[in-house]
Transcriptional repressor NrdR (Amycolatopsis cihanbeyliensis), 170 residues
Amino acid sequence: MRCPFCRHADSRVVDSREVDEGQAIRRRRSCSECGRRFTTSETMVLAVVKRSGVTEQFSRDKVVRGVRRACQGRPVDDDALQQLAQRVEESIRSAGVAEIPSHEVGLAILGPLRELDGVAYLRFASVYRSFSSIEDFEKEIADLREAIAGSTEPDGAPEGREPEDPKDTE
Ligand SMILES: [Zn+2]
């Protein structure tokens, strides 16, 4: 690993520890030329196997893009999408496998998305599970209602949408 300060090609590891419950290794390195220290992080490459058999590296951005489409016109901001993608990655990584079929990425999205926004969830699920009839939607909506009824979290008013007080400008 090249030194980020002087570009020297050689460095030595002075400390190495597991982080994220063993999902990653962080190494403290010392440059043998300038003596400065820097940190590197090593994570397992998570490969997604597409239906065609082609594999590509798992990407949170791709999850965000896929879900954003389903969230059009819904009160879901970018932070929420990023958090969702992070949860998806964590749940996939926690399975401890190096490769995952792309449809299982979709599966991992469904749970967090359902908590995030029911309408976006239905849109995503309808494509992902290729709903072919109204009955498919009806069944999914019934499940969704049940899940909402069963949740203890109150469905409060939308947050962060208070308009600025116009009375300030007299
Ligand atoms: Zn250096």
